[in-house]
Structures are given as C-alpha cells and as structure tokens.
Design brief:
Elements lengths: L1 E3 L2 H13 L4 E6 L5 H13 L2 E6 L19 H10 L4 E3 L3 H4 L18 H4 L3 H16 L3 E5 L3 H13 L5 E5 L19 H6 L2 H14 L5 H13 L5 E9 L13 E9 L3 E9 L2
Parallel strand pairs: 1-4, 2-3, 2-5, 3-4, 5-6
Antiparallel strand pairs: 7-8, 8-9
Helix pairs in contact: 6-7, 9-10
The structure holds adenosine monophosphate (AMP).
The site of adenosine monophosphate has 17 residues, from helix 2 and strand 5.
Length: about 280
C-alpha cells in the first residue's frame, strides 16, 4: 500500500493502473477510520481492481464555528487499518495541495441542500461537492462509495453526478452501528462517558418512529414529535432537527404516502453533533 500526498503522484499511479486495464474504486473519507468506513472499503475491494481511500479533513465543508481544528486526525492509525483492509493507495493531501493559493472554483447546487443538515450548515454541501469533484477528477474512479449514514450527502452526490454527466457510479452502503445502536462516527470520540451512555437514545427514538410509520401512522408531525420527545426525555437539550422528507426531492412531507427519509441531528456536549436516519418505502 502506498501513501500518496500529491495530486500528480495519484494521477501518475492511476495512469499506470489504467494501462493495465484495472478498474478503480474510491472511498472518500476524512480519516479517523472506523468500521463504517471499513465497510465501504470492503465493498470497494470486492468490486474493483484497485482501491483508493482519500484521507482529508476538508476545511471547505466546515462552518466558521464548527469542529475543523478539533476533528480527530491520525494518518498512521488509518494507514494500519487500510493496509489490513487491502487498500492500494491512501491519498492524504495537505490543505495547500488541495486548495493552493488562488483557488476560487466551487461546485454548488440549488436544490436538496437547503433543508436537513444544510439548514444549520449552509456552506457544508458546497464544500463536500467541491472536494468530491476534485477527488473524482484526480482519481477518475469507476465506482465511488458513500455511507447511507450521511443520507443527504449521498443524495446530493448522486444528483450532482446525474446533473453534470459524471462518469462514475455512486454506491450507497448501509449504516454500521455500535452494538447499542449508535451509528458509528468519527465524532463519537468527542463524547464524554456520560454523553456516550445517553447517545444510543437517538437510534432508539428513530426506531420507535420507524415502527409508528410501519404500524400505519401517516402524520409526519406525530412521528417527529414522538422521536423528539424520546430524545429529550434523557436530558439531551439540543436537537438540531428531526425531519421527514421525500426521499428523492428531500422536501418535507406532511402526510407519509410515498418513499421517505426520516433524519435527525442532535447536539451533545461542546463539539458533537450526531446524525442518524432511516428510509422507508411506502
Ligand atoms: P467521513 O469520514 O465521516 O466523512 O465519512 C466518510 C464516508 O464514510 C462517508 O460516505 C460516510 O457516509 C461513511 N460513513 C461514516 N460513518 C458511517 C457508518 N457508521 N456507516 C456507514 N458509512 C459510514
């Protein structure tokens, strides 16, 4: 496995692989890898000749008061996990390598990004789209792997690829959870032991919401109220949102009568903002 830090090194490597007729799978990450990332890597490993993992905390997708500086980073640790998982190349560029002086081009979207996480993180998806575009242009993957944990991100990337006629297949992978149901996340490392013990309530509440809909409840308002009440019942005080939206347009729905995404974001402690979701075909 190679750790490459420059765009030109990756392009050179990709050229050699293409010469051998190999397909390429890309797994974009911000590092501090866990089993969620490893499930994407496994999927990529099984379906491509070569696998590239990008390991880059992208400043463009963090707002001014967010956790860019505190985000956990450890390339050696990530490299050990990637090596074991059969990754061929880790692309770990510096911020200057990705955004050299004079950088001023962005990729943005008019729909899909205004609600859910986009509401409290207004520049987030522009940053995600821009870095993912750059990675696609650098690595030219046949397949790129994204987690359903970031459901809005997955929808945005799929739409961008469709709208801009990009030659890459986007593969969504299921949410990997801790045994107690908490969705695995690099940001779980921010939680104090007490916060960690409360955090599984998020998935418990979402599961209750899912059961309500599966049991015939069609009022989004009632389901959202029930989920919020369960989360708040353990002393968590700050919910960013609980929303039920159309799974394609991501527009809020009042009456649940077509395929939906139910998603939430919850603040815990100083830095942690935890997200979770489920989708249902109606
Ligand atoms: P991140 O490093 O948090 O930007 O995540 C990189 C990729 O891993 C994204 O496509 C995430 O959706 C995905 N991912 C993160 N956590 C999980 C999880 N618990 N289950 C599945 N995919 C995940």
């Amino acid at each position: 496995m190679k750790i490459l830090k420059t765009v030109s090194e990756v392009k050179e490597q990709v050229k050699l692989w293409r010469g051998e007729g190999l397909t390429i799978g890309l797994v974009p990450t911000m590092g501090w890898l866990h089993e969620g990332h490893l499930s994407l890597i496994k999927n990529a490993r099984e379906n491509n000749g070569r696998v590239v993992v990008s390991d880059f905390v992208n400043p463009l997708q963090f707002g001014p008061n967010e956790d860019f500086d505190n985000y956990p980073r450890d390339l050696d640790r990530d490299a050990g996990l990637c090596e074991k998982a059969g990754v061929d190349v880790i692309f770990a560029p510096s911020v200057e390598e990705m955004y050299p002086e004079g950088f001023c081009s962005y990729v943005d979207m008019n729909g899909l990004t205004g609600g859910l996480c986009g509401k409290s993180r207004p520049i987030h998806f522009r940053g995600v789209q821009t870095v993912v575009n750059k990675l696609f242009n650098i690595v030219t993957p046949d397949n790129a792997y994204f987690g359903e944990k970031d459901a809005q991100q997955l929808a945005v990337i799929k739409r961008m690829v469709l709208d801009l006629n990009m030659n890459v297949k986007i593969k969504g992978c299921p949410i990997i959870r801790e045994e107690d149901g908490l969705a695995k996340s690099s940001r779980n490392s921010y939680l104090t032991p007490e916060e960690r013990s409360l955090a599984p309530i998020i998935n418990k509440a979402m599961t209750r919401g899912k059961e309500m809909i599966q049991g015939g409840e069609r009022s989004s308002e009632k389901v959202i109220a029930a989920i919020s009440e369960i989360i708040l019942s353990v002393g968590i005080t700050k919910i960013d949102y609980v929303s039920i939206v159309d799974s394609l347009s991501l527009e809020p729905v009042d009456t649940i009568e077509r395929d939906i995404l139910c998603a939430c974001a919850v603040y815990m402690g100083n830095f942690a903002r935890l997200i979770d979701n489920f989708s249902l075909e109606i």
